[in-house]
């Protein structure tokens, strides 16, 4: 029976299933303890339909014809087309386009259900069995698009394509595709094909295989094979690189297991684990083991001492571990973080990913746990750290413990009352203790430590292994440093001056204390060591500061006034002479029976490491900073509120020095002059310099006589200076920002240093440069002046909306050479991209040309040609 209903403003029939008479309720009233539901018909929900032009009903055939922007909605099924036919007798939908006045088809059918979206020439679908046949179809599955002459769908939303094409290009006529006679797709899972081959620009290529498998997960990661890249290296031969498997264990953890294999015997195995727990922490743990085999370098090294040949890396086995862990900040909870980069000395020279990484002289690692105790001034930190140099020197701090107390008020602690404004209520005290256990594989020569000839003062480097732990412990140092800061408040004097006194005390405990004795037989100093040493250091300080304003009113057409701001600061510090024998921190030791000319027979040597410097200090410190700015009329805004704007002439001009009243000579410290400003809102200018107020003798030593000569207008000798001017000529570059949100672990492939990290076509061009000139003066036997000049420049330019060039270059005027240079060219090819990287100079020189598909799904579909430090030799 057809009953009318309103659809798009029209009364149209709707199919309704009637209940047969035999199924009428026969349970008498009062016996309804069991309810019997009527059986459902073939149609599970209401079919909603509409059309813009007309709707025609064929009641006898049970057919509805929809013309013009026809739309069907049935559960999760949606169908749009120029013409749709609903056949209630066969439970089928038929959708086709209609020709317009020019004969061109319009209203191409678009079909949507839980299996995906399909655009086709003709669609026939049975909404009861959920099976369908689609002709000349285009459908998107994940990141890919499937074109097929005919597609059939079954009740599980799986589709089967005939003469199908799989591509990631979103054009109607794709630039490239993977062609196969038969293709099967499982939505949100994978696409499978029979024998296939790659077609580029309608040209079939011989690239293909007997079957294809393309994962297409939806909002989840998937495990899969990582296809290796092929290449050639003179040192290690032909190779397959970065091939392996990615394991997506769950939504929080993923593992990338890859390896390299070389025809001359070398190999590399890498494991990279990425993990993330939302709102808690995220991190990455990687381990890499490499057997670098280079017989040619080994042979050449044994035959010659040529520096260039010795620069070739020899055969070696290396391992490297990197771990980064970042927690989410949560109030009241401890924070555990890690940044580990450690391993064999030569590993990074062989497996560098950037020029800075290759040239880095040191690598540091830290594992830290820190916590602030709520509602208290206390916090603590526990840290394990390690550092290593390219020369094989290892330093460990195991552990590094720190406990601190932020400054608290004496008044509040002692009385438990709120402050009332009394001057003594400003007294505060802070405390910090730091305990360290430092280990190293280097035992420095004792003579290098004290600067005098010591018995058996020989440097030695120890290897890192469990068998050497005893020697590492002996080379190490244990210490605990206690610091107290007593702030006596800040007070106004004569309304305009701020007076701030303070007292500090430091005490250190160490595991070694030295005693010295001159040995006349060996003519060297013998050293005795005890297991505990204690030193302390205290000082008193007071500062007086104010602010001085001066304004000159100009009243010109543009310039309204000029303001000069001066901030002088005078401070005084006092510390006793800790070199006196009564403190016991130093020992006056005979170091030679017959001292050479110009040297003393006795030397003051520290008995404890980090002993406070000898000599009484009664020092007056002076610092003056200046700021000059103009008040000018605004060119753009003439309203009363914004009629004027401030323009900085000089951001800062400061000089500082000190005078030690207790010193026997050379009481005035060098004068430091620093200036910086910004010109035209573009150029950043910085200048810093140091002036020596004393004369020097022929040996370069300071003489207690001032250089100052008013008649010659000479104040002091310039010893060093540095001037830098830099600019960024594109403001859009500073305002642009990019972010890639990520809530799940991602696959992090190895980066090539010649490939661009990110290409932003929104900024048409960028240009920034830094020019630095440095001056340094030496005295004595090597007296002279040195001037260094460097210029660095980097930027980018978009030649078109598809071409982008980035560049970096640095020039050293002193040595007349290019210190570093890098040029990268990028071309957007719609569904493909091309990148060219070139480093023309240095050990890392080389080039890389890569053409690859953009889609991460087909990231291994690429063509690469490169030469770098890895495969140049």
TrEMBL record:
Record-linked Pfam families: LptD_2
Domain of life: Bacteria
InterPro entries reported in the protein's UniProt record: LptD, LptD_2
Domain called LPS-assembly protein LptD central: residue spans: 191-694
Protein name: LPS-assembly protein LptD central domain-containing protein
Biological source species: Pontibacter aydingkolensis
């Amino acid at each position: 029976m057809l009953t009318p209903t309103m659809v798009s403003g029209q009364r149209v029939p709707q199919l309704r299933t009637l209940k047969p008479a035999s199924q009428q309720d026969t349970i008498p009233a009062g016996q309804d303890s069991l309810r019997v539901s009527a059986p459902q018909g073939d149609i599970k929900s209401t079919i909603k339909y509409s059309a813009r032009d007309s709707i025609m009903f064929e009641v006898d055939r049970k057919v509805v014809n929809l013309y013009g922007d026809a739309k069907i909605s049935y559960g999760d099924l949606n169908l749009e087309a120029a013409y749709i036919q609903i056949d209630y007798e066969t439970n089928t939908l038929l959708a086709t386009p209609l020709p317009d006045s020019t004969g061109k088809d319009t209203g191409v059918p678009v079909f949507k259900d839980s299996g995906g979206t399909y655009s086709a020439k003709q669609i026939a679908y049975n909404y009861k069995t959920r099976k369908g046949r689609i002709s000349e179809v285009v459908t998107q599955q994940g990141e890919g698009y499937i074109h097929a002459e005919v597609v059939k769908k079954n009740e599980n939303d799986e589709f089967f394509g005939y003469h199908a094409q799989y591509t990631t290009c979103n054009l109607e006529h794709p630039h490239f595709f993977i062609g196969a006679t038969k293709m099967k797709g499982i939505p949100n899972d994978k696409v499978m094909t029979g024998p296939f081959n790659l077609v580029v620009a309608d040209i079939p290529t011989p690239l293909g295989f007997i079957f294809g498998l393309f994962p297409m997960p939806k909002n989840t990661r998937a495990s899969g094979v990582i296809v290796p890249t092929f290449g050639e290296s003179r040192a290690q031969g032909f190779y397959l690189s970065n091939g392996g498997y990615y394991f997506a264990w769950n939504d929080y953890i993923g593992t990338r297991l890859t390896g390299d294999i070389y025809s001359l015997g070398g190999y590399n195995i890498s494991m990279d684990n990425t993990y993330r727990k939302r709102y808690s922490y995220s991190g990455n743990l990687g381990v890499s083991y490499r057997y670098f085999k280079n017989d040619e370098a080994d042979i050449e090294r044994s035959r010659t001492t040529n520096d260039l040949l010795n620069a070739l890396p020899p055969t070696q086995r290396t391992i490297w571990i990197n771990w980064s862990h970042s927690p989410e900040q949560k109030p009241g909870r401890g924070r555990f973080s890690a940044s580990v980069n450690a391993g064999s000395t030569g590993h990074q020279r062989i497996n560098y990913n950037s020029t800075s990484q290759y040239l880095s002289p040191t690598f540091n690692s830290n594992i830290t746990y820190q916590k602030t105790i709520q509602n208290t001034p206390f916090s603590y930190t526990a840290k394990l750290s390690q550092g290593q140099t390219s020369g094989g020197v290892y330093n460990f701090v195991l552990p590094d413990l720190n406990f601190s107390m932020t400054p608290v008020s004496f008044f509040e602690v002692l009385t438990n009352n709120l402050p009332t404004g009394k001057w003594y209520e400003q007294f505060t005290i802070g405390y910090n203790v730091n305990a360290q256990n430092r280990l190293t594989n280097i035992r420095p020569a004792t003579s290098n430590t004290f600067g005098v000839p010591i018995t058996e003062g020989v440097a030695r480097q120890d290897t890192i292994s469990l068998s050497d732990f005893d020697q590492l412990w002996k080379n190490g140092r244990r210490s605990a440093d206690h610091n107290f800061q007593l702030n006596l408040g800040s007070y106004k004097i004569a309304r305009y001056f701020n007076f701030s006194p303070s007292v500090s005390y430091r005490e250190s405990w160490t595991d070694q204390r030295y005693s010295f004795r001159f040995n006349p037989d060996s003519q060297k100093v013998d050293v005795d060591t005890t297991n505990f040493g204690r030193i302390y250091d205290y000082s008193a300080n007071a500062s007086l500061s104010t602010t001085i304003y001066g304004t000159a009113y100009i009243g010109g057409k543009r310039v309204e006034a000029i303001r000069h701001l001066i901030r002088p600061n005078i401070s005084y510090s006092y510390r006793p002479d800790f070199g006196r024998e009564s403190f016991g921190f130093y020992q006056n030791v005979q170091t030679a029976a017959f001292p050479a000319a110009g040297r003393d027979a006795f030397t003051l040597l520290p008995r404890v490491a980090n002993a406070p410097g000898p000599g009484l200090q009664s020092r007056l410190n002076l610092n003056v900073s200046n700021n000059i700015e103009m008040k000018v009329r605004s060119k753009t805004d003439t309203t009363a509120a914004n009629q004027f704007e401030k323009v900085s002439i000089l951001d800062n001009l400061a000089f500082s020095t000190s005078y030690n009243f207790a010193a026997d000579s050379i009481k005035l410290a060098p004068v430091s002059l620093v200036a910086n400003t910004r010109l035209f809102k573009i150029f950043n200018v910085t200048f810093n310099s140091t002036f020596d107020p004393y004369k020097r003798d022929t040996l370069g030593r300071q003489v207690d006589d001032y250089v100052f000569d008013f008649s010659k207008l000479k104040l002091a000798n310039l010893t060093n200076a540095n001037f830098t001017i830099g600019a960024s000529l594109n403001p859009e570059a500073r305002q642009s920002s990019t972010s890639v949100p990520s809530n799940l672990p991602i696959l992090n492939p190895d980066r090539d240093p010649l490939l661009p990290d990110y290409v932003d076509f929104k900024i048409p061009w960028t240009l920034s440069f830094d020019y630095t000139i440095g001056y340094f003066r030496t005295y004595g036997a090597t007296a002279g002046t040195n001037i260094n000049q460097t210029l660095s420049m980097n930027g980018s330019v978009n030649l078109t909306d598809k071409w982008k060039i980035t560049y970096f270059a640095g020039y050293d005027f002193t040595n007349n050479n290019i210190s570093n240079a890098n040029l990268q060219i990028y071309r957007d090819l719609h569904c493909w991209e091309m990148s060219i990287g070139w480093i023309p100079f240095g050990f890392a020189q080389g080039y890389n040309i890569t053409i690859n598909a953009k889609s991460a799904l087909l990231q291994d579909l690429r063509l690469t040609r490169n030469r770098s430090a890895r495969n140049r030799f």
